[in-house]
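User: Show me an example of a complex going from sequences to structure tokens.

Assistant: Sure. Here are the input components:
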Amino acid sequence: MVRKPVAADQALRLDNQICFAVYSTAHAFNRVYKPLLDRLGLTYPQYLVMLTLWERDGVPVKDIGARLFLDSGTLTPLLKRLEAADLIKRTRSSEDERQVLIALTSKGHALHDKARSVPQSILAASDCTVGELLAMKDEIVALRDRLNAVLGE
Amino acid sequence: MVRKPVAADQALRLDNQICFAVYSTAHAFNRVYKPLLDRLGLTYPQYLVMLTLWERDGVPVKDIGARLFLDSGTLTPLLKRLEAADLIKRTRSSEDERQVLIALTSKGHALHDKARSVPQSILAASDCTVGELLAMKDEIVALRDRLNAVLGE
DNA sequence: TTAATATGTATTGCGCACAATCTAATTGCG
DNA sequence: CGCAATTAGATTGTGCGCAATACATATTAA
């Protein structure tokens, strides 16, 4: 009879895997965000892009990608949809014709006001204190950064 | 001059958002998993399905969906690809013709052995102790379950 | 200045994710 | 029993996410 590696099997159990915890929580967040973002006419990844632009716009696509860990294959069509919705404007940089600079339109700026109520709704849904969430966030970000560090090697 | 709600703007900052921490960590995990799962011929969601089947197979699609928080729109094509790869077999239940039961093929069972080394590689990449990861996992799962509870209302 | 290389974005193809809709099978209720 | 309501999967359409590739611009080296 073949001896099975019990420890390895425990590690393969779905409920023991932090990756699945993260994966399924990301989906849960997405589902909670959906009705809130529908009112803004945004998807969740589009919302993330808008968050970066509300902090600073007139930036090249690459900067947004670096901020969100996304590449041009994802961002180019997403940004075109935001442009079609008249939330942003895409213009080639005159300094470096390779770059496309992303600027908010007045409609894009205006959406910032409507978005201010979103975090409060999410906080309520999470049923946590701000302190608890921020502590968890720091732990998760630390994990993410270690994972990304391995990728960079 | 219009007074801006400073607290709300802080809440909208990307780096303060736990949802983005979770979202970006899920992507980081996916990227770390990719080379490992490529060797098994699986994508990450396919790997999750196989994890559930290695625990128990011969189950209807709905059960897998309940386990992974995925619906038939996602699972049906994914399962067809696993079937095309000869890892699973899909058969209509004779008891309830509405159900499609998912069973592992011998090749699907055999893949279990090759998969046993995966968690160790992920653990190494995360650069954490098992204890730290399990503690984080429990916190994240608790958050996920609270988010899902709100959705169920 | 030209040739080689690097960089920024766009495109294509594949595989999720999910809403909405559809079909078929089952259950429940009068 | 008979029909409405429910349930399980499948299908369609939209939008990521990423690998691979293409292409134009920019930089560097010879």
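The lines above are the inputs; the final block is the predicted structure for all four components together. Helices of chain B lie at 6-12, 18-38, 44-55, 61-68, 72-84, 106-115, 118-126, 130-152.
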